[in-house]
Design a protein that fits this description.
With about 450 residues, the protein is mainly α. Helix content is about 75%, strand content about 0%. It has one domain: Hydantoin permease (Orthogonal Bundle), CATH 1.10.4160. It is a multi-pass membrane protein. Keywords: Membrane, Transmembrane, Transmembrane helix. It holds the Pfam family Transp_cyt_pur.
């Protein structure tokens, strides 16, 4: 299978295959303006006041914007997916395989969550079959869509995003006509209270994996300027906009169940459209997961697995997860993800933008639209930094915000660790043992 048919899963995206900014932007907004974002906003609105939820959303969104742009701009320049770029951005061959595995597992979890939402919504709307059967049908349908790659992702987003925004807009108008917005903004939360730190971590964790995989989309963009506008507009429309509307909806309906909220405010058609829109996010979850798996298998076993084959395998596994009821662990999943994934961004940022250890070879091969013939086998400083940073984010709860703590800890520890290693080994530019594994 050629690189173009396989969406360049193990190669650079050539300039001839780059897309207009708006095409990638629609997919990006579609990945943010979705049911899980409304679920997150509803969870915040159920456990916080509007102003508390606004603070948490703003802090989490700023962090996501910085991470998304930094990694996305590097990917637009290099034409590489997240897991492939990480080979020359601090993680080496084996480290990139771990990133690929983490991305695949995390996104399979998201796939299961979204598929469960879709299945429950379809069951409530139709009253036929059961949630398990609907989960099976939906999971296989999304898998089939993703098999066809980036072009079909764009087509799906172009269809479902306007419908989704229309349904949410109708629900908002209904909410505004029946409630006093000023009272909703100062209303006490209906559910158990959430702290600012936990809520911010939920916001950052809720899309941190999306920020980390920004390169999977931005590698199809033509410049860093395109990436900036794509991430900025996507964050304001999808993250801030959807979250805060869902906060008000939760306060108006006194529920954190988004299907119940949409039924109350927009009826069956609105609820059905919102549930249906999970397709546009779930296809991106599956798409990036397939890229992660192909990189992992190539890095560890030197296997060039087709992205299509990986898509079928992950789609089936994700569907099984939804049948097992993974939705029940939604909040805990967000919190753990919020501290486990950010260190990856911190390490990649320092290595690519500050240390620039592999920029020369990347520049040389980029001109030829090829990849370097070798990379580090693994980087022990990276592995130690990742573990310590996760532990800091997970256990340090009385100071700062866990997601930000883990990211900053990774950046600082990695930079310091590499400088100490360079001094101790008398190397101007640190290099570890390399592998000549070809792609």
């Amino acid at each position: 299978m050629s690189s173009s048919h396989d969406d360049y899963s193990l190669s650079r995206v050539p300039m001839s295959a780059r897309r207009p900014m708006w095409q990638v932007l629609v997919i990006r907004i579609g990945s943010l303006a979705c049911v899980s974002q409304l679920m997150l906003g509803a969870a915040l609105g159920y456990g916080m006041t509007f102003w508390g939820a606004l603070s948490a959303t703003f802090l989490g969104s700023v962090l996501l914007q910085v991470v998304s742009f930094a990694l996305g701009a590097a990917a637009a320049k290099e034409g590489l997916s997240t897991s492939l770029l990480s080979r020359w951005a601090g993680f080496g061959n084996m480290g990139s395989s771990i990133i690929g595995g983490v991305i695949a597992i995390a996104l399979m979890g998201w796939f299961g969550i979204q598929n469960s939402v879709f299945a429950e919504g379809l069951y409530k709307a139709t009253g036929i079959f059961n949630t398990q059967i609907w989960a099976l049908i939906a999971g296989l349908a999304v898998t089939l869509i993703v098999v066809f790659g980036f072009k079909v992702l764009s087509l799906t987003a172009n269809i479902s995003l306007p419908l989704f925004l229309g349904a949410v807009g109708y629900a908002t108008i209904h909410m505004l006509s029946g409630k006093n917005v000023g009272e909703l903004m100062v209303a006490a939360p209906s559910g158990p209270p959430l702290t600012l730190a936990v809520a911010t971590t939920m916001v950052a964790g809720g899309f941190m994996i999306g920020a980390i995989i920004t390169p999977d989309l931005s590698r199809f963009m033509k410049s860093g300027k395109d990436v900036f506008w794509m991430t900025l507009i996507g964050t304001f429309v999808g993250e801030l906009g959807m979250n805060l509307l869902a906060v008000l909806m939760a306060a108006a309906v006194h529920s954190n169940d988004i299907v119940t909220i949409m039924l109350s405010l927009a009826g069956w058609l609105g609820a059905g459209i919102v549930v249906f829109s999970t397709i546009k996010l779930n296809d991106l979850n599956l798409y990036s997961s397939s890229l992660g798996i192909t990189n992992m298998l190539n890095a560890i076993f030197n296997i060039k697995l087709s992205r299509v084959t990986a898509t079928w395998a992950i789609g089936i596994i994700g569907t099984v997860l939804s049948l097992m009821g993974i939705l029940n662990y939604f909040v805990n999943f967000l919190v753990i993800l919020g501290v486990a994934v950010p260190p990856v961004a911190g390490i990649m940022f320092v290595d690519y933008y500050i240390l620039k250890r592999h920029r020369k070879v990347l520049d040389e091969t980029r001109a030829k639209e090829t990849l370097p013939s070798e990379c580090e086998q693994w980087n022990p400083v990276t592995m130690v930094t990742w573990v310590i940073s996760f532990l800091i984010g997970y256990f340090v709860k009385d100071f700062g915000i866990p997601a930000i703590n883990s990211l900053l800890a990774a950046a600082i520890l990695y930079y310091a660790g590499m400088k100490v290693y360079a001094f101790s080994t008398k190397q101007q530019i640190v290099e570890f043992a390399k592998t000549t594994q070809t792609l």
